[in-house]
User: Fold this.
Amino acid sequence: MRVNPIRPARLGTIAVFALAGLLFWVSFSVSGGSNIRTDDSLLQMSDLIRERDRDNARLEADAAELRAEVDALTKRESGADPAGSERLARAEDAAGLTELTGDALTVTLTDAPPDAVPLLPGIPDPLPNDLVIHQQDLQAVVNALWAGGAEGIQVMDQRLISTSAVRCVGNTLILQGQLYSPPYTVTAVGDREALRAALDEDPVIQNYRAYVDAYGLGWKVEENEDLTLAAYNGSTALHYAGPTE
Assistant:
């Protein structure tokens, strides 16, 4: 009996079918029998995110309601004691937990243009760090205003309290969980002449204003009458690191 040899073309066909079978088996094994070409997983993730957002919104509403109940109970308890009520009001004012209205000074700091050139003769070309607002610049303004007798200070749209920290990453301000980009505004209620004098005398601000003259960093001081600073409405609980177990 003569056995016909297997032709190369037939071998190629067999190899193709074998490879196709292998691919189908791998696809089934990876997908677990489900369709891996659909967007079901992305839709499920999107649904999960929306669900978490709704949960967070409900929790925020519950927290606001509880804070209101605590405030009402505190005021009711202190109402029985006029002296205690007065002490509570003074403490809330000092802590920045109530609105503050009065004459004010607003300082605005702005980055220089990215293509800035020296504005004074004999000044070297600026480096990138010479053209942006730094953390020490904002801190210097805040510290000077406190030293000048500010009754309350607001950075951007947030009232500062004793635990507030002004921090920058690059040229982005991080304040009490919120992110801000320049221009930055710092507003203080108090004696405007004393506040302005404190700004003029601060050595860090004097150094900053040298860069204002040299490269065009922004610096503006405005006076306001009967300006109202918002009350601080965040958490007053202290958060701190602890040792790992």
In short: Residues 152 and 159 are 8 Å apart (CA to CA). The helical segments are 8-31, 40-79, 82-95, 135-147, 192-201, 203-215. The first strand starts at residue 100 and ends at 110. The longest helix spans residues 40-79.
